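Fill-in record for Toxin domain protein.
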Amino acid sequence: MLLCVPCTTKAKGYPFEVELSDSRESVALADQVTCVDW
């Protein structure tokens, strides 16, 4: 099982945005979790 969340470089200040450490500023949207099973 794999849990995925979308990431974006356009932070909007939503409460469920999680900052990612990278060379460019980006956030993961923790309220849009997708589960993949293969």
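KEY FINDING: Residues 2-36 form one domain.
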